[in-house]
Specification:
77% of the residues lie in helices and 0% in strands. It is built from five helices and no strands.
Length: 111
């Protein structure tokens, strides 16, 4: 439940953004905009890993030709996985930088 003080603070920030012609508090303080949520990208990587694991386990007792087909399918599934993980790394670095900027601002305000 939101307190009255929290409602007042929210209204104050909304007014400051409107008067400053900006959309985010980050713009007020010249801080990077936070990156988008990464859950869908993480889910995609997990889904790929699970699919590859499933294909590998199902193929244990297959004939050689069937195994070759499954390996091609696995190879297809994991192609680009390194790019997906690299995107996540970059997003995490952005979140870290964004958090550090807010931390530095908070220290200035408190000091």
């Amino acid at each position: 439940m939101i307190t009255h003080a929290e409602e007042k603070a929210y209204a104050m920030w909304e007014r400051l953004k409107r008067e400053g012609g900006v959309e985010t508090t980050e713009e007020i303080f010249d801080i990077d905009i936070p990156p988008e949520h990464q859950c869908p990208k993480i889910d995609k990587v997990i889904k790929t890993i699970n699919e590859v694991n499933k294909q590998a386990n199902v193929g244990r007792h297959d004939e050689f030709e069937d195994l070759k087909d499954k390996l091609k399918s696995i190879e297809y599934d994991i192609s680009g996985l390194d790019d997906d993980v690299e995107e996540l790394r970059e997003a995490i670095e952005s979140v870290r930088k964004w958090g550090q900027q807010w931390k530095e601002l908070a220290k200035k305000v408190i000091a």
